[in-house]
Amino acid sequence: MLKALPENIEVNDLIQRLDRGPAEHKGNAGKALLVGGDTGMAGALLLAGQSCLYLGAGWTMLQMLDHHSAHANSNHPELMISQASIKSATKLQDLKADVLGIGPGLGQSELAQTYLTSILTLPNAPVVIDADAINLIASSENNLLLLKIRNQRFPHRTILTPHPGEAAKLLKTDVATIQKNRLQAINRLVELTQSIVVLKGQHTLIASPDHSPFVCQAGNPGMATGGMGDILTGCIVAIAAQGIHHHLDLWESSCIAVHLHALAADQLVKKGVGPIGLTPSETMIEMRSIINQQLKQLNASH
Ligand SMILES: NC(=O)C1=CN([C@@H]2O[C@H](COP(=O)(O)OP(=O)(O)OC[C@H]3O[C@@H](n4cnc5c(N)ncnc54)[C@H](O)[C@@H]3O)[C@@H](O)[C@H]2O)[C@@H](O)CC1
Ligand SMILES: Nc1ncnc2c1ncn2[C@@H]1O[C@H](COP(=O)(O)OP(=O)(O)O)[C@@H](O)[C@H]1O
Fold it and tell me: Which positions in this protein are listed as binding AMP (predicted)?
């Protein structure tokens, strides 16, 4: 039977682990690296980066493929943005990122492929794979093999977040088939990739080789706008980065992020911000409010 995403109380138990001790420093909140943002899609990487920042990562570094946009962002000078290059792609290990995310606006260029290969072969660190990085895996048996090898060597440390279009490409089928039986689709995606998988869309599903599928009942059609998935990627990366020192694994971090993302959109709709015109930028700020309110309430009740 399909389980609901851990009820509020269980997600709250997980969120509580993010509570900060008085002497914590940015090292405890983790170093995040996000890669993407090719020409015309720099915004996707910026949204993922901002979400990562608002959800609490200690450092958020972006490697941007579009060289016109690869510079400090005056609205968010906290983001450490550098230009993506073959040289940087092959030296990613030097950055010592705690968690990596690849895909938002990545495109499918040779440089994009070099980054994907580099990230898939990086030891240890949790990795979130989204958007065009999923498309690159769907179109190459070799990438799929690298993903499986990574999962054999470092189990539970890779997550894929396909929307139904990307899921259809991975499973070599069409969107209608995915949507007709989403449960079967996520089970096949887990089997194919041996990864944690978040199958997005109405009633997002999350499953892994060790967890049967959970369904997220929250969320609404106000979320059907470009960039909404990019902020989920940034949120998973941020929570997983904090999770390194706060005892949350990638599965737990993903459950928190999926829940917060959908709940934030629902709360905004209740306030009249959406469904029409709800933006990812507003949603990430609401996600930040929810996480801080929940921590405050949990602390008050102890
Ligand atoms: N601000 C930006 O720069 C943005 C850039 N983006 C980037 O644009 C690239 C292309 O990604 P897109 O996802 O926009 O386009 P795609 O062409 O990859 O996927 C869109 C298609 O997937 C299917 N689909 C998606 N969600 C569905 C759902 N819930 N139910 C049923 N079918 C669904 C539909 O067939 C839809 O037409 C990616 O690299 C992405 O990161 C997007 O993230 C949007 C924002
Ligand atoms: N009708 C809906 N009900 C619930 N959630 C939705 C709905 N439409 C979209 N979403 C959510 O919004 C997000 C959209 O992600 P995605 O399609 O990857 O966007 P993008 O690539 O533009 O950033 C996903 O988390 C998805 O679950």
Answer: 200-204, 229
